[in-house]
Fold this protein.
Amino acid sequence: MERQAILRLKDGTEYRGFSFGAEGITGIGEAVFNTGIPGYQEILTDPSYAGQIVTMTSPMIGNYGISEDDNESNGIKASGLVVKKLYRGPVLPGRISLDEFMKREGVPGIEGIDTRSLTLHLRDHGSQNAVIFPEDRRKEAEELLQSFPEITERDLIDGVSVHRKIVNPDLGTGFEKAPENPVKHFALIDYGIKRSIINCLYKRGASVTLFPNDVTKEEILKDDPDALFLSNGPGDPALLHGAVDLVRSLIGKLPIEGICLGHQIITIAIGGKTEKMKFGHHGSNQPVKDTITGKTFVTAQNHGFMTVRSSLPKTASIWFENANDKTVEGLYDESLNVRSVQFHPEASPGPEEAEAIFDVFMEKAR
């Protein structure tokens, strides 16, 4: 029997639908929308979505089920999922349904609402906290929503980072293995790493040492890596004072490279600033222009914060910019030996044409 559920935004707007996934509980986080069509599993298990409720703009979600080999981490990291229509039909052998996956992971979802209306509301009024709840928990949900901190007040990194050093982590079935004779060695700080990023480095013959987010300068230099790599992750980079201080202390000692949150940390470390976007870039169809070649290509993205172009030091150059809104999508500073991109060149999900960025990262490692 279908159970009614409600999605309530911080500004009081409500959408009524039906519960799926973990029922009878509340899910709370910042509501964002993702314009991708496939890839719901990778989105849900991407640690960058920690603390967020994801609305999928594609009208039907769940068509091909869930394969354990496609997880980007060890489980669902998003706080909830909003869809217009949930697919409830059969899936291929060896797969489970999206509904079953979310039940197992204890994450609530809501279907049957007008996701186009919700997306337009978030686009016009901005991403904001929201809660999914059953009607009988309204009072509790409304109180929770009113007291819940904004994404700019939440340090989400400890909940998604590893807590010990891992040399060449095993990514599991369907992913590359660490190379036996690596050509480069990357020290990779985990702020919420996707397995596909490590996979792209393995494919190019690089070994990886994964460090927790509270690693020290001495621990990294002791490993004598060819480059320091900063991963993607959730939340506001302006809260990560320790990460910024660490990167700043290593500038000039190692080549430093980053993706997404790593790009934002580099921005602050070299003297720039970041700011929250109105509704961010979430999806697999964001056009990005390479300022060096003049070519434009399509990328996968997931971020709610951006580099403030005017704040960058004069020695920094814009590597990429968004073809839609001209926001900074990548930078480099040859004098400091830093280079980073805001988008996700590993895709997963998304177009693979940006994966060549990893070739540049390999080349720039010493």
